[in-house]
Structures are given as structure tokens and as C-alpha cells.
Amino acid sequence: MAESEGRFDLIVVGAGMVGAAFACACQGLGLSIALVEPRPPQRSWPQGETDLRVSALSRASQRILTRLGAWDRILELGASPYREMLVWEGLGKGRIHFDSADLGEPDLGHIVENRVTQLALWERLEQAPGVTLFCPAACADLELDPNGTAAVTLTLTDGQRLTARLLVAADGRDSWVRQSVGIGTSGWDYDQQALVANVRPRDWHGEIARQRFLPTGPLALLPLRDGRCSIVWSAQAERAAELMALPEAAFAAELTQASESCLGDILAVGPRASIPLRLQHADQYVRPRLALIGDAAHAVHPLAGQGVNLGLLDAAALADALDQARALGRDPGGLWALRRYERARRGDNLAMLAAMDGFKRLFSNDNAPLAALRGWGLALTDRLPPVKHHFMARALGLGDGLPPLARP
Questions:
Q1: pTM (2 decimals)?
Q2: What CATH number belongs to 191-277?
């Protein structure tokens, strides 16, 4: 527990998956940590119920969560491996097939409910002696004094005042912290909504993730362990509104057609939700005494499911930078440590944002010559094993430059 006056070494605002992972990664660094979160995690749910919000966790994310002591609990609560991925062009015949066996890997990743990942991490934090949880709690005011020892003062809505040497914002793409300190963002709205639902197809999914690129946006069918699929159907706003308004049977018919009946007819559709899509990148990741991680720093199109994976790499990289500062006796809230983190992550995140935006623009149109070119490109790539293996290795997190928590 912290001292009675609310003094800490580190304040983390936001205890979703990324914020909770970062706090777990830091709790062994000898830091006293305050974790501020408005909503406690969901502790239980009916057997057989699957949350609408799921993530495709990469091998790098799995390594991070394993080293934080959360992966076994995630498997216990429920995770669905996917061993292959099939991607095809909606207006042509081009397709590409990825198989984990080609790399000698057991799978390409796992589909995990967001609430499962958050709960597994939260349970670790509840057992951590250096962590104080403020939940439910909301932020009211923030003061930064770059030159002070207790340089950050965070006032909560109930009047509590927390001070620390560093504040880390993990409070999402509409980050209150980022806006409070005046860090701007660049990017744009996509005029698209991502429709999410859990559906039951006629045929077994075979632990294969499928994605079809349609002119109005990509449709992904992600395998769940009970035979259902979690869908992420990105569509232009007007089309998304039409789909959301359809009765279940009509929506199932539209989904069957949009997926080209790749798993037979869609037999049942659960509750639906829609999420507005945006590309967003913070102008700065760090200031003296302040760092942004996860969606507070960047928001990416979901067509490759990389948002949470990028955030977990942020968390691991920032924890490593603070560990390096500790080893050298440097101030954890100083720019030496924080710029080390920013250099490690900003370029990679920007490259992923640009790649996903490029894919979105390349595939989300009905230009016939371009569709033919896209199909040719997918088919050619499918016939070039070295190129396919490179893509799979990158997606798995087998590349260079990973933070220690994510390395093999």
C-alpha cells in the first residue's frame, strides 16, 4: 500500500488490458504504483456466453502475458487458438492462405475475450504488494510540475489527491489525460462502423480465421472454441446502420451472402454492436513526467486485429525503459527513460497505422482494374513461401526489436 498522503512512484490511469499489463510489468521494479480505473472488471458471466469484444492475441502478446503470470488463467477462462488464416478478395479470385504448420508453430494466435484478459491481469494486480487499486474512481484534475520530485498531482472526483514522479495514460483513444495536457492527435474518421457479433454457422470453422475484403469494408470471421465465430464486419456508416436495423434472420442471410457461404448458412446471430472507426496518432507519446500507451497513443483500423497487440508491446517497452532507468539510477519520470520508450515504439506503431490504412484504401473500393490487380497480388503472394513466411513471422511476433517481455 502507498503512504497515507497518496504519494507514489507511478500513477497509471486506465486498467483495461494495456494499463493492467503495464502495471503488472512494473510491479517488480520496486515502484509504488497507483492504478486508477472507473469500472471494476467483470468477475463472472453465464457459462457459454461470449463477450462481443474479443482480440486476436499474437505470439508476442502471449509471451508478455505468460511472463506476467496471466496466460494460464486466460487459458482457464477460455481462449480459442486459430491455426490457419484465409484471406480473399471480394471482387476477384485472389486469395492467400496462411498455415502455422509452415513455420513449425502450433498456431497463429488466440482469439480471447477482452474481459478474460483484463480479469486475468487484474487478479495478478490484486495480489501485488506494491500496487494500490483506486476503483471505481474517476479523474477530475491533473497538474504537471516537470521540475518537482513529486511532479504529478492527480485529483480524483471524490477529492483524493495522488502524487507521483510519473503518470502513464492508458485510458483509451478518447484519453482524458491526453486531452488534459493538450497533446494533439493526427488522423481521420473512416466513415465506417465495425459491427461485432457472435454467430453460429452451419459448418465447423476448423480453427481457421477468415477475412473477405468487400468494397464497403472487410468482413472477418474469427473462430471461437464452441464452434461459433466472432465477426467484425466493417462497413460504411449508412450500410452499417442498415445492417444493425435488420431482424436476426435477415442479418444472417446478409452475412451468409457477404461471407460467400464459406461456412455454410449462418444459423443464429447473437446481440450486435457497432463501433465507429478512426485512424489516430498522438503528436507526442511523452512529456516530462508523462507517457501515453495503447489507444491513448494510437488507434488503428481493426482489419488485421493489431490494436491490442500494439498496446501490449507499448506496455512492455515502457516497462523496459523504466527498468533501464532504475538500473542506472535515473529518474523514471525524466525524458531519458521516456524518450527511450518513444523511440522504441513510435516508428513501429506509425508503420502499422500506415499499413492498415493502405490496406483499407486499397481493398475498400469497387474499381474493377484495381480489384483485378489486388487479386493478382494475393494469388502471387500465396505462391511465394518466403514472402508468406515473412508476413506470418511478423504477425506472430518473431521479428527483431521486441522488448524483453515479448522476446522468444
A1: 0.92
A2: 3.30.9.10
